[in-house]
Amino acid sequence: MADERKKVVVVGGGITGLTAAYYLQKSVREKHLPWDLTLVEASHKLGGKFQTLHRDGFTIERGPDSFLERKKSAAELAVEVGLRDQLVNNTAGRAFVLANEQLHPMPKGAVMGIPTKITPFITTNLFTVPGKVRAAADFVMPRSKISGDQALGGFFRRRLGDEVVENLVEPLLSGIYAGDIDQLSLMSTFPQFYKVEQQYRSLIRGMKKTTPSAPKKHVNAKNQGIFLALKGGLYSLVEAVEGKLDNVSVLKGTRVLAIDKSAGERYSLLLNNEQLLEADSVVLALPHLALADLFAEDPVISRLKEMPATSVATVAMAFDKGDVDDHLDGTGFVVSRNSDYTITACTWTHKKWPHTTPEGKVLLRCYVGRAGDETVVDLSDEEIEKIVLTDLNRIMKLTAKPNFTVITRWKQAMPQYIVGHKERIQQIKSNLHRNMPGVFIAGSSYEGIGIPDCIDQGKEAVEEVLKYI
Asked: Which of the two ends of the chain, N or C, has the fewest CB atoms closer than 10 A to its terminal CB?
C-alpha cells in the first residue's frame, strides 16, 4: 500500500551503526517520515571498539582513545548528544621515536614523517648523514609516473629513501594502521601526498607549502594538542547516543544470519533467534569479514575474506609516580621497526591526558601486534606483561611492578587497505546497487578507519537511504 510505513534496519552497533541510527531518527523526526527504525547488534553492548574502564580513579581506554579535532563530525555528534562540556584536548608535548636503542625527539615540522622544516631535520640524530642526503634527493627527483594505485611504502621510499621511511614514516603510519606500509594502498590512506607530489614535484617542498602554520593560540589554550577525547571516556559517547535513540528499536545479542529479497520490494533479515525482520532499506555497518560471511555465496562480496586484518593488543599499566623514571618531557614514543622491541608504541597517558590519572600516579599505555608480528597477541596476560615491562625497562627505569595491568586483545580488528582497496570497495558497492538496491555498507573496513571517518560514513549511509526510499 502507498501509505504503508517504511522499515529501515541498521546492522551493527559500533560507532558507524550508532551514528546511522541516530541521524536516521533525526531525519525521520525533521521530515515527519512514516518510518520504523531498528538497530541490530550481535554483542550485548553497543559501541564496538569503544570500551572505557574506570578503576581506582583511572580512566582507561581499551580501544581508541581520541579523535582528530580538525575532522569535525565526531565533536559535532558529541555536542548534539549533550557532551560539549566533556570534550577535552590532549596536552601538547614532544613525541619521540625509539631507534638505535635511543629515544629521539620527533623532528619539528615533520608531517607524517615528511620534513617541512629543514633545520630540525638536518640536526636530528635520528638519521645518518647519508640518510639525510638521500632524503634531500626529493628536491630534484621527477614526479611519480604511476597514475593508478601504489604501495604507500614504495611511494615514500622512492621520495625519501629507506632510512627516513624505516625510522620515522613507518612507525608513524603503523601506529595508525598496524599494517605493512609496503602493502598498504597510497590512494586509500594518504592520497593527498600523491596530489602534492604531482603538483609540486618535490614532496618536501609541496608539504611545506600546503601545511598550514600553527594558529596563534590564546594563553589558556597554550598547551592544547590537535586531538579530542571525552573526560568520562569515549564510551560515554556511546551511552549518550544510545540514550537518544528513543524512536529506534534496539536489538542486542542478536545476529543477522541472512538477507534475502522477500515478496515485493522488501528484504527479509533472518535473525539467530529464528525471527524475521522486514526492511525497505538496510545499512550494514559491519566489519569486512562479517560482511563476507553474510554474503558467502556472492563472488564479489565474499572476496573481502582476502582482505587482511591485523590483530593487536593494548596494555595499560598503572604505577605510583615514584616508581617510574619520569624525567622526559613528552607524551610518548613510537618504535622503529628496525629496533629489537616487541612494543610498537607507548603513550604516557598521564601526561597526554591528565584527566585520566589520579594525582601521584602514572598511566602507561603500550601497544603490541602489527602486520607480520601478531603472535604476541595470543600469549597469556602474564607473558605479555613480562614482555612489555622488559621493553620499557630498556628505555625508562621502573623500580616496581605496576599496581595493575589491563590487557585488551583485538583479534583481526585492524582492516588493511592494501593496494587496489578503493577499486574493490567500489566494485562491492556497485554490485549491491545492481543486485540489492537499498542495501548500503559503511564502517572502518571501507572508507576510513578513524572515528570521524566512521561517523561520516554513517551519515553518508543515511543520505543514501533517504535518496533510495
From this structure: N
Grid coordinates of 215: 594558529
How far is 146 from 415, CA to CA, in rounded Å?
25
Cell numbers that stand for 151 in this block? 604501495
| The residue count for the chain | 469
Q: What sign does the dihedral 125-168-153-206 (CA atoms) show?
A: negative
Per-residue pLDDT tens over the stretch 176-218: 888 899 999 999 999 999 999 999 999 999 999 988 765 544 4
DSSP letter, residue 142: P
127-174 pLDDT per residue, tens: 999 999 999 999 999 998 888 899 999 999 999 999 999 999 999 888
Question: What is the C-alpha end-to-end distance of the chain, expressed in Å?
Answer: 14
Long-range contacts of 273-281 (CB under 8 A, 24+ apart): 277/7, 277/9, 277/38, 277/40, 278/7, 279/7, 279/8, 279/9, 279/38, 280/6, 280/7, 280/8, 280/438, 280/469, 281/6, 281/8, 281/9, 281/438, 281/439, 281/440, 281/465, 281/468, 281/469
Amino acid at 49: K
Whether 37 and 22 have beta carbons less than 8 Å apart is answered as: no
Instruction: Decide if 449 contacts 188 (C-beta within 8 A).
Output: no
The pLDDT score that the predictor gives to residue 218 is 44
Q: In this structure, which amino acid lies at residue 397?
A: K
Q: Domains of the chain by range and CATH?
A: 6-48+234-307+417-468 (3.50.50.60), 106-210 (1.10.3110.10), 309-415 (3.90.660.20)
Question: pTM of this prediction?
Answer: 0.94
Buried b (16+ CB within 10 A) or exposed e, 268-305: ebeeeeeeebebbbbbbbbbbebbbebbeebebbbebe
CA distance 70 to 304: 31
CA 261, CA 176: separation in Å to the nearest integer?
39
Close Cβ partners of 466 (under 8 Å, ≥ 6 residues apart): 27
Q: What is the mean pLDDT of each run of 10 residues along the chain (469 residues)?
A: 80 98 97 97 97 98 95 97 97 91 91 89 94 94 90 95 94 87 94 94 92 54 83 98 97 96 83 94 97 94 94 97 86 90 95 96 95 91 97 93 97 95 96 95 96 98 97
Q: Return the DSSP state at 113.
A: T
Q: Which helix (H) or strand (E) holds 387?
A: helix 381-393
Angle subtended at Cα 22 by Cα 17 and Cα 28, rounded to the nearest 5 degrees: 125
- The DSSP secondary structure of 3-33, one letter per residue, reads TPPEEEEEE--SHHHHHHHHHHHHHHHHHT-
